[in-house]
Design a protein that fits this description.
Elements (H helix, E strand, L loop, with lengths): L12 E6 L9 H9 L6 H12 L7 H18 L6 E5 L6 H10 L4 E6 L6 H18 L5 E4 L7 H20 L8 E7 L3 H6 L3 E3 L2 E3 L3 H21 L5 E6 L14 H10 L4 E5 L8 H18 L2 E4 L7 H18 L41
Parallel strand pairs: 1-2, 1-3, 3-4, 5-8, 5-9, 9-10
Antiparallel strand pairs: 6-7
Helix pairs in contact: 3-11, 4-5, 6-8, 6-11, 9-10
The structure holds coproporphyrin III and fe (ii) ion.
The site of coproporphyrin III has 26 residues, from α1, α2, α5 and α10.
Length: 377
């Protein structure tokens, strides 16, 4: 227990904002319809992704992972004397954001600080949630709680540290399994997005001109650099590493970020490397993209190629990540009070913004769609 409880005013609640996932086989199709409505995803891709869910009993792990995170976060806040009720709302599945905001209003919440289960800057991981919050807030109307958010946390030390420990442990495991762990490759993996979405990521308007862009890839590269150098320090071996992508979707003629993790494993194996460690740095918990696209598909590719394979856990409910969330809340509250708190960040990039600048991560399909938590209006 801290001798003095940190000040979290002006907030009276915490809101976890997430993606949502199906809980039973009958949920899978309606969930996929929610996710892809108006997004031009080919039918064949949906059938394929539906099969990923059905192969895990029609249930995504993501909702239970959020329930677990909330349970440990509740203990974390309480043990530091922070008295903030925790709410949870999703974009694509129950509990939906609109219902959650309605409940918050009913409970008398006036101003909440939110966190998205997405660590990086992109339309999918940021502005789209901001649009969802605008829509939910507008649906509630009068008395909807005022909302803020914590900064993007990709470079918070508490997000990065679990990956470093996980990679060191994975290398040791490969060694015990008879692989040459000094020669193993580090393969950093994140969700692919359309090239155009990456180009718009972090791009925003300053005095009428657009500046920035490609923040999604830049942030991932920065995190990969930091983790690779910390792993090198811990193990005394510098290993080559690469940032690659999984879960590509959309029509084939639309370019998405490459290389795909499976293609990368092919070229790694062809170059004579014997083992890989996959670090899913794009993901906060071991949800479907991780357990299917990496643990099932990429692992099968590695086996076919005769590559030793180890996958590092995501931060999930790691104590350092949970502490980071508490610190981010305290930090954001201080910023809301116009104080200048310490904003810890590792790597070459500065701490991310707490209020998105004008036009940031443009919605390329529906330009100008309103969003909360930014300086747009
Ligand atoms: C950047 C990014 C993240 C990481 C940041 C974050 O975490 O937010 C993420 C996370 C997730 N994506 C998820 C699931 C899906 N994503 C899809 C489709 C898409 N994702 C995209 C991007 C991202 N997605 C994009 C550009 C599309 C194309 C359609 C569109 O432009 O919106 C589809 C439709 C089928 C398909 O097209 O693959 C599904 C089912 C789940 C839930 C997993 C579970 O159930 O355990 C999670 C956490
Ligand atoms: Fe996705």
């Amino acid at each position: 227990m801290d001798p003095v409880a940190p000040d979290t005013s002006p907030y009276d609640a915490f809101l976890l904002v997430s993606f949502g996932g199906p809980e039973q086989p009958d949920d899978v199709v309606p969930f996929l319809e929610n996710v892809t409505r108006g997004r031009g995803i080919p039918k064949e891709r949906l059938v394929e992704v539906g099969e990923h869910y059905f192969s895990f009993g029609g249930r995504s792990p993501i909702n239970d992972q959020n329930r677990d995170l909330i349970a440990v976060l509740r203990l974390e806040l309480a043990s530091h004397g922070i008295d903030l009720p925790i709410y949870w709302g999703n974009r694509n599945w129950d509990p939906y954001l609109t219902d959650t905001l309605a409940q918050m209003r009913e409970d008398g919440v006036e101003r909440a600080v939110s966190l998205f289960t997405s660590a990086y800057t992109s339309y999918s991981g940021c502005r789209q949630y901001r649009e969802n919050l605008y829509d939910a807030s507008t649906a509630i109307g009068e008395g909807a709680p005022r909302l803020d958010r914590v900064r993007h946390y990709f470079n918070h030390p508490g997000f990065v540290a679990p990956f470093v420990d996980g990679a060191v442990a994975a290398l040791e495991q490969l060694g015990r399994d008879g692989h040459d762990s000094d020669a193993a490759r580090l393969v950093f993996v994140t969700h692919s997005i359309p090239d155009a979405m990456n180009a718009a990521s972090g791009r925003h308007v300053v005095e009428g001109a657009e500046v920035g862009g490609e923040a999604y890839v830049r942030e991932h590269r920065d995190v990969a650099d930091v983790i690779a150098s910390q792993v090198a320090e811990r193990t005394g071996v510098e290993r080559p590493y690469e940032l690659v992508y999984c879960s590509r979707s959309g029509p084939p003629q639309v370019p998405w970020l490459e290389p795909d993790v499976n293609d990368h494993l092919e070229s790694v194996a062809a170059s004579g490397v014997g083992a890989v460690v996959l670090l899913p740095i794009g993901f906060v918990s071991d949800h479907m993209e991780v357990i299917y696209d990496l643990d099932t598909e990429a692992k099968a590719t590695a086996e076919r190629l005769g590559l030793g394979f180890a996958r590092v856990p995501t931060p999930g409910v790691d104590a350092r990540f949970v502490a980071a969330i508490r610190e981010l809340v305290v930090e954001r509250a201080a910023l809301a009070r116009d104080e200048a708190p310490d904003q810890p960040a590792v790597g070459a990039l500065p701490p991310g913004w707490n209020v998105c600048p004008v036009g940031c991560c443009a919605n390329l399909r529906e330009p100008g769609r309103p969003a909360l938590l930014g300086s747009d209006r």
